[in-house]
Design the sequence.
């Protein structure tokens, strides 16, 4: 990025402070600084002085601006919000932000600079066509900031490799990163999230490069202590998040770009997929396979072969003579149906397939720079690609889902939406990607170039689909799954990480990958359980399904031609293990669903790295083979064949082993523990103070919860409160108070342990059920008290070392103490 001289702005010569912010005029170029919120700063560096026009598809949400005061101090302007201070050095034109307590972070090394990238000797990696139109599109703006030596670089969206992405050069450009697989050293993938969460013990801060153009974030690859931002588009626009914790950064990011949608409860259940269940009979057989074996299941996905010759919005009537009947049969078994939809529309006119004709009539398809229709090859052969930047096109595309919604399809799986297109039919030798030309005009009035909108292609397809599901079925929550996306995708869709392989390395990689997505704003994420490419060995499947239980989105999926990958395909032993794992998922749903509500409220990811919950423990920051599932559970999976024990790093505090119910922190040596991890016994640790809420095993979320267990794991010293959140599981009533919240406090061992359930609050009344109160104790107590009186019906679970008492759940307060 450095081999061609940059234009420099020179010193700041004049400035204006208006209500909204500060405009600093350099010799050439302008810097504009605004307080988007007291803890979020927006900085725009404008080489030609003019900000880019705002776009209807911009993911930014309007926030009430905060007050920004400006004072002049020897050679600098000092800008202040209640939570941030920034010093603008007038001579150098550099910015030096500080937190409220004075810690400096993200300081500019020098002022931003710019150059014409076509003149640069540096090739733009992964840019299909670096010959961009002159002017702003190919003006690259570059900024270097200082990274502290002990600062890790996290988030940064969907990548391969480890959790800490320091010392890498990361491109933001969506591509179909499929075969030959997701190698550790790969760079950009299907999604693009130019967001960074920098963390060192005591401080986390964040940065969002607000650019949908091709951009690069260098986290110390060229120079170890230098963070470099580069984007095309002729302007550098970024947001700084003041943290100071990782949780605060994610909250700030999702306050600005949107909180994760609340999924319907069924979407948190188990999903079964493969490319493809090819006929009505096959789909029914899979459903029956689950029900007969009593393996819980909530959804079956239909991959591309349900369509007639891969024509979107059609059905192959030979293999699916009555699609509505197929869906009805699934529904009768309490299984939801999800269909794949790809953006490529078969280029076929006047042959009884109206989508291409209608699309051309409505001018909905992308055109080449010369105005001719653009086409490229994907599943149906030569295909046309909708221009989702056009509002009328989004509406048209959305309405095309009416047929699917009409027959009862429950969710839409948006695939190949990077978009993934080539210059000849799929499978033909010598096939290459053939992207929409970067100089093609997109949007309502052709207002933007494809170079600006490429990264948003998948996201806008998803938006069109989500809006349609909302419009066509307003009483239900839309549920979507997408492969491509960008900042803000969490508002509309869950994401999976694309075409992984049935390799142990990819099992291990799923943790940093999903944890990074969570830090980038996407809470509902998963990878193909069992792996997509290649045959999955039995042991790998066993390990994958026990880990997949904890993926926010849990789906088994594999490629055409691989061996069967349903949970029973690996023999009775693995089948039994898979059943137990999936049953565990269903038992955990009250907890996971509460986490989904929390994510919807603050952005807090369901699956997150240890640093999220223990930001002050530097030793835990790089760990990516253990993750937290919400604040109460930590899992430490085995991701290698033949291994039956593993080392678990224990964060500070009291910890229990979920399997034995016993405390384990007292046996830890220097913060680590060796634990047994035979097949079927994924190490799951429970944080002291946790009130784990568990349901009974159900075959699907459509069955009512008949029993709620509240399992108290007392901390040694601290009381802790957890609030269980419940609602109808679908629809929007929760927004109008149809929500039940139950605060549960677990009192510590030091003062005589107790689990105290508060009265249920709110306008949602759960199905009548039993309440099982449990409390883990070091030894069998002499007496047990319920609501202050000695109880006579309690039970001691000697194996789990827990007192247990059964009540009927009357929504009233209860207290179980020893
Ligand atoms: C893509 C998807 C994969 C799907 C296949 C066929 O490779 O990533 O999940 O099965 O296309 O539709």
Sequence:
């Amino acid at each position: 990025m450095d081999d061609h001289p940059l234009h420099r702005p020179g010193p700041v010569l004049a400035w204006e402070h208006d209500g909204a912010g500060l405009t600093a005029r350099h010799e050439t170029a302008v810097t504009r600084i605004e307080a988007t919120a007291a803890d979020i700063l927006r900085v725009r560096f404008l080489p030609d002085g003019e900000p880019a026009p705002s776009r209807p598809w911009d993911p930014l949400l309007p926030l009430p601006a905060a007050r920004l005061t400006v004072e002049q101090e020897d050679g600098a302007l000092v800008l202040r919000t209640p939570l941030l201070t920034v010093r603008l050095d007038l001579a150098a034109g550099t910015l030096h932000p500080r937190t409220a307590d004075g810690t400096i972070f993200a300081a500019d090394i020098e002022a931003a600079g710019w150059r014409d990238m076509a003149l640069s000797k540096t090739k733009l990696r992964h840019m299909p066509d670096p010959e961009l139109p002159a002017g702003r599109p190919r003006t690259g703006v570059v900024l270097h900031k200082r990274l502290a030596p002990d600062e890790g670089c996290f988030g940064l969206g969907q990548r391969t490799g480890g959790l800490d992405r320091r010392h890498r050069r990361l491109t933001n450009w969506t591509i179909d990163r499929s075969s030959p697989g997701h190698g550790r050293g790969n760079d950009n993938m299907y999604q693009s999230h130019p967001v960074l969460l920098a963390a060192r013990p005591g401080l986390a801060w964040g940065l969002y490069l607000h650019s949908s153009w091709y951009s690069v974030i260098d986290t110390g690859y060229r120079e170890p202590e230098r963070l470099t931002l580069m984007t095309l588009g002729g302007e550098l626009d970024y947001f700084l998040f003041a943290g100071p914790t990782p949780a605060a950064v994610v909250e700030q990011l999702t306050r600005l770009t949107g909180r994760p949608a609340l999924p319907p409860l069924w979407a948190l259940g188990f999903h079964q997929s493969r490319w493809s269940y090819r006929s009505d009979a096959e789909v029914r057989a899979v459903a029956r396979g689950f029900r007969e074996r009593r393996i819980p299941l909530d959804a079956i996905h239909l991959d591309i072969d349900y369509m007639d010759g891969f024509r979107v919005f059609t059905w192959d009537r030979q293999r699916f003579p009555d699609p509505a009947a197929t869906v009805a049969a699934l529904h009768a078994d309490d299984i939801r149906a999800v269909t794949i939809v790809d953006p490529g529309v078969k280029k076929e006119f006047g042959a009884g397939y109206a989508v291409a004709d209608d699309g051309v009539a409505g001018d909905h398809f992308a055109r080449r720079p010369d105005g001719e229709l653009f086409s490229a090859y994907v599943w149906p052969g030569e295909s046309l690609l909708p221009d989702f930047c056009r509002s009328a096109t989004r509406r048209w595309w959305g309405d095309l889902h009416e047929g699917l919604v009409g027959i009862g399809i429950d969710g839409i799986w948006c695939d190949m939406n990077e978009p993934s297109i080539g210059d000849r039919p799929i499978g033909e030798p010598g096939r290459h990607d053939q992207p929409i030309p970067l100089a093609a005009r997109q949007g309502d009035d052709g207002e933007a170039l494809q170079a600006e909108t490429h990264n948003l292609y998948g996201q806008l397809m998803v938006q069109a689909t989500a809006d349609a599901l909302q419009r066509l079925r307003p009483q239900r929550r839309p549920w979507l799954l997408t492969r491509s996306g960008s900042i803000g995708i969490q508002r509309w869709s869950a994401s999976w990480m694309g075409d992984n392989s049935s390799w142990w390395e990819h099992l291990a990689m799923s943790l940093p990958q999903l944890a990074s997505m969570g830090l980038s704003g996407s809470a509902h994420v998963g990878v193909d359980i069992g792996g997509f490419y290649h045959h999955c060995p039995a042991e790998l499947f066993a390990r994958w399904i026990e880990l997949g239980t904890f993926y926010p989105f849990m789906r088994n999926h594999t490629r055409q031609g691989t061996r069967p990958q349903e949970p029973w395909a690996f023999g009775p032993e693995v089948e039994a293990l898979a059943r137990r794992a999936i049953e565990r998922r269903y038992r955990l749903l009250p907890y996971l669903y509460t986490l989904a509500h929390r994510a919807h409220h603050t952005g807090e990811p369901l699956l997150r790295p240890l640093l999220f919950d223990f930001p002050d423990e530097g030793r835990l920051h790089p760990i990516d083979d253990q993750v937290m599932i919400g604040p109460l559970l930590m899992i430490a999976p085995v991701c290698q064949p033949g291994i039956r024990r593993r080392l678990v790093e224990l964060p500070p505090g009291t910890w229990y082993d979920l399997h034995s119910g016993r405390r384990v922190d007292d046996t830890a040596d220097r913060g680590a523990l060796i634990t047994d991890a035979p097949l079927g016994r994924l190490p799951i640790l429970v944080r002291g103070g946790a009130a784990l809420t568990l349901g009974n095993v159900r075959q699907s979320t459509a069955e009512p919860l008949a029993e709620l267990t509240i399992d108290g794991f007392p901390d040694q010293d601290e009381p802790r409160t957890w609030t269980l959140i419940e609602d109808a599981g679908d629809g929007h009533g929760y927004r109008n108070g149809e929500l039940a919240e139950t605060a549960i406090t677990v009192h510590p061992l030091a003062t005589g342990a107790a689990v105290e359930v508060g009265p249920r609050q709110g306008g949602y009344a759960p199905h009548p059920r039993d309440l099982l109160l449990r409390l883990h104790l070091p030894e069998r107590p002499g007496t047990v008290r319920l609501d202050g009186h000695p109880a006579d019906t309690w039970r001691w679970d000697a194996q789990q070392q827990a007192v247990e008492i059964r009540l009927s759940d009357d929504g009233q307060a209860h207290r179980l103490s020893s």
